[in-house]
């Protein structure tokens, strides 16, 4: 293995999981996220020599976002939240029990609503609030004007607020059964 | 909520598996990409019958570069058309143009970019950067001094999509009287639409505004423009 290959492998090992989180927030699906990450890493490798000295993580992050947006354009992937992923999320630490009347908390509502955002609005939310990029940096990643980023941000936040405000509060499934009776 | 969003986004993340063979899978994909590119290159040489390849515009490191379209394999098999890929960040856009046409890309200091294609030679005065790439880009930095009769200038601009039109419906459109932006380069007719890739009208589709500026277009001019817009493609190789 030569120096560039070792360098690339070290980068993937060190930053791969962080980039996978970005991919998951974009796709809402663990398998799709890994697929997206590996696709982008394979695309980036031929250019590694020129990007390694700069900010390779920023380069890969931009490629993640734009590749995901182009997948959406081609409709190769559905945007329906997968039930098994939702269950995997709820099975994490601090999750509630799952039955037909799933109890909803703010985090689960947010997870669902983020997945329902249009891809570009979702990308803006992920870049600005998870990756902590400025409006201008986000605009450069997406290849649009800062005004467009601000517009997407406002729309996304309005959707998140409206959906979260109308979501049922933390109700135990037992209580809900009683109310229906 | 905005203040809490960073923390909330961290908390909604599930436990994501770290595949032990991730690098092996990436290496396999790298080899697959190489094989596909070799196969595609071999197919285009066979199809055309001589050593012509599609050109990719080089990055405008020191200012915009004006390019002529180079003959290459076109999807219609028309030898009079050539494939050109616009520059980053519009590098996902591939256009098929008459071989006599020209292309140019410009950016402003904020990274916004516009791509131009035209039946006439293109240039941007000064140091080559555009003061402001917005909907009025033809007024801010006109890429030509004036359209000739039957001249065509198409502008590709990334921006918010507020229409369900796509490049296909734009190709079927009827030109209307030019606005101030088109008149700034001597045009008298125009068409405007949006490229939504392959999902017209879908929420969150690609935001590519297309302005077509014309001067006294003939029927042949309109047929040529329609063909260019119909063949417009947005590829997956963005970013």
From TrEMBL, chain A:
<keyword id="KW-0804">Transcription</keyword>
<dbReference type="InterPro" id="IPR007627">
    <property type="entry name" value="RNA_pol_sigma70_r2"/>
</dbReference>
<dbReference type="InterPro" id="IPR013325">
    <property type="entry name" value="RNA_pol_sigma_r2"/>
</dbReference>
<dbReference type="GO" id="GO:0003677">
    <property type="term" value="F:DNA binding"/>
</dbReference>
<keyword id="KW-0238">DNA-binding</keyword>
<dbReference type="InterPro" id="IPR013249">
    <property type="entry name" value="RNA_pol_sigma70_r4_t2"/>
</dbReference>
<comment type="similarity">
    <text>Belongs to the sigma-70 factor family. ECF subfamily.</text>
</comment>
<dbReference type="Pfam" id="PF08281">
    <property type="entry name" value="Sigma70_r4_2"/>
</dbReference>
<dbReference type="Pfam" id="PF04542">
    <property type="entry name" value="Sigma70_r2"/>
</dbReference>
<dbReference type="InterPro" id="IPR014325">
    <property type="entry name" value="RNA_pol_sigma-E_actinobac"/>
</dbReference>
<feature type="domain" description="RNA polymerase sigma factor 70 region 4 type 2">
    <location>
        <begin position="109"/>
        <end position="160"/>
    </location>
</feature>
<dbReference type="InterPro" id="IPR014284">
    <property type="entry name" value="RNA_pol_sigma-70_dom"/>
</dbReference>
<dbReference type="GO" id="GO:0006352">
    <property type="term" value="P:DNA-templated transcription initiation"/>
</dbReference>
<feature type="domain" description="RNA polymerase sigma-70 region 2">
    <location>
        <begin position="12"/>
        <end position="77"/>
    </location>
</feature>
<keyword id="KW-0731">Sigma factor</keyword>
<dbReference type="InterPro" id="IPR039425">
    <property type="entry name" value="RNA_pol_sigma-70-like"/>
</dbReference>
<dbReference type="GO" id="GO:0016987">
    <property type="term" value="F:sigma factor activity"/>
</dbReference>
<dbReference type="InterPro" id="IPR036388">
    <property type="entry name" value="WH-like_DNA-bd_sf"/>
</dbReference>
<dbReference type="InterPro" id="IPR013324">
    <property type="entry name" value="RNA_pol_sigma_r3/r4-like"/>
</dbReference>
<protein>
    <submittedName>
        <fullName>RNA polymerase sigma-70 factor, sigma-E family</fullName>
    </submittedName>
</protein>
<keyword id="KW-0805">Transcription regulation</keyword>
UniProtKB/TrEMBL annotation, chain B:
<keyword id="KW-0812">Transmembrane</keyword>
<protein>
    <submittedName>
        <fullName>Uncharacterized protein</fullName>
    </submittedName>
</protein>
<keyword id="KW-1133">Transmembrane helix</keyword>
<feature type="transmembrane region" description="Helical">
    <location>
        <begin position="39"/>
        <end position="62"/>
    </location>
</feature>
<keyword id="KW-0472">Membrane</keyword>
């Amino acid at each position: 293995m030569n120096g560039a290959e070792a360098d690339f492998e070290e980068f993937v090992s060190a930053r791969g999981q962080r980039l996978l989180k970005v991919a998951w927030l974009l796709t809402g699906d663990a398998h799709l996220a890994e697929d997206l990450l590996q696709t982008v890493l394979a695309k980036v490798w031929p250019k590694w020599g020129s990007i390694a000295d700069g900010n390779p993580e920023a380069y890969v992050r931009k490629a993640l976002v734009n590749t995901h947006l182009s997948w959406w354009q081609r409709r190769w992937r559905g945007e329906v939240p997968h039930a098994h992923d939702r269950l995997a999320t709820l099975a994490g630490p601090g999750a509630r029990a799952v039955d037909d009347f799933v109890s909803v908390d703010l985090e689960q509502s947010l997870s669902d609503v983020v997945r329902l955002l249009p891809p570009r609005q979702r990308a803006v939310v992920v870049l600005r609030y998870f990756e902590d990029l400025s409006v201008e940096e986000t605009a450069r990643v997406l290849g649009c004007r800062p005004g467009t980023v601000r517009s997407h941000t406002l729309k996304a936040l309005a959707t998140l607020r409206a959906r979260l405000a109308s979501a049922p509060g933390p109700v135990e499934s037992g209580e809900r059964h009683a109310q229906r009776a | 909520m905005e203040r809490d969003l960073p923390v909330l986004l961290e908390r909604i993340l599930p436990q994501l598996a770290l595949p032990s063979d991730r690098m092996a899978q990436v290496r396999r994909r790298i080899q697959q990409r190489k094989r596909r590119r070799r196969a595609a290159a071999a197919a285009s040489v066979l199809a055309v019958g001589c050593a012509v390849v599609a050109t990719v515009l080089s990055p405008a490191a020191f200012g915009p570069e004006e390019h002529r379209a180079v003959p290459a394999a076109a999807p219609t098999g028309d030898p009079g058309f050539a494939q050109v890929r616009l520059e980053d960040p519009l590098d996902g856009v591939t256009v098929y143009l008459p071989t006599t046409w020209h292309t140019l890309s410009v950016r402003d200091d904020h990274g916004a970019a516009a791509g131009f294609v035209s039946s006439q030679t293109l240039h941007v005065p000064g140091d080559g950067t555009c003061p402001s790439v917005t909907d009025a880009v033809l007024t801010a930095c006109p890429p030509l001094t004036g359209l000739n009769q039957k001249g065509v200038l198409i502008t590709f601009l990334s921006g918010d999509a507020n229409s369900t039109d796509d490049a296909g419906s734009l190709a079927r459109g009827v030109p209307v009287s030019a606005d101030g932006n088109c008149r700034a380069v001597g045009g008298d007719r125009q068409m405007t639409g949006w490229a939504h890739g392959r999902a017209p009208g879908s929420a969150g589709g690609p935001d590519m505004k297309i302005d077509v500026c014309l001067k006294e277009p003939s029927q042949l001019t309109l047929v040529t423009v329609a063909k260019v817009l119909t063949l417009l493609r947005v590829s997956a190789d963005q970013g």
